[in-house]
Every structure is written in C-alpha cells, then in structure tokens.
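Exercise 7.
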Amino acid sequence: MNFEEYIRDIPDFPKPGIIFKDITPLLAVPEAFKGVIDTMAEKVKDLDFDTIVVPEARGFIFGSALAYKLGKKLVPIRKPGKLPYEVVEVSYSLEYGEAKIQMHKDALSKGEKVLIVDDVLATGGTIKAIETLVKKLEANISGVLCLAELSFLNPREKLSNVRVETLLKY
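Solution. The predicted structure, written as tokens, is:
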C-alpha cells in the first residue's frame, strides 16, 4: 500500500513557507491506518524496548495504536499545563517557533527502554527534546519510529546515535 497517497500537503500552514503534512486523509481510510500500524510494528519487531513515548497530539494516534498492538506501556508527552502530576520539562525549537514539553516525573524508571513514536520527523527538535526528557529520568532510548521524515531538513543530525525508522521520506 502506498501510504503517501493518503497524506495531503497543506501549503503555508501553520505559517507561510511551511508545507504541512496532513495525515487526516490516512486516518479516514481504515485499511490505510491499519496498514501503517502493521508496517510500524514490523519495522520494530527486532527492537528491544519496554515503553512507547509519544508527543501530543498526532504522536498519540500512532503510538497508542502501536502500544496496543505490541502490548507495550504508553507514556504521553504533553504541552505545559496538561499533566496533573509533578513533571519534568524541556524547552526546544520547532520548525516554526519555540515550545515546551512535559512528562510525569514518575513516567519512566531508570534503565527502562523507550521507543519514541511520532507522525513526522521534521527538524528533529521535538524528538531531541523527548530524548532529553527520557534521559532526565535515566531511561534509555532504543529507537525512534515515525510515519514520515522530512529528510531535506536533516533531522537526524540533531538526534543521538539511535536507530531511526520511518515509513516515508520527503
């Protein structure tokens, strides 16, 4: 199945010069969404990890379905003010601005093996920030898994030396 057929480009969103990769057409076709989750599971079948860590909001979609399929723990990464318990936090740069993300301070244990799952690997800023949060809790990054990668932005340069898997490259 060609998943790229189900991803729509939205020019100048969220600001001029950005071409946003809209995944909602893919989500509207059950066979395509199931195909993506099955393919993601296949990509990491040989990877040793305990937990899937996902950023809001679109990471939740893929990560939760994958955690269910693989029987793994799921940890959400949220924007400030969204988590009810004590948090660890990091600030970072996005392709189109600045942001902060948080995770519950007890979400991961020392030595826990983590797979980071998101929809699009763009500049690498969000994934790098998640790596920082994971390391603050002394857990280990086993890998990164994303639906698509904007390789022309060189996102892998920002990431630590971890395995990165994507289904699509732009």
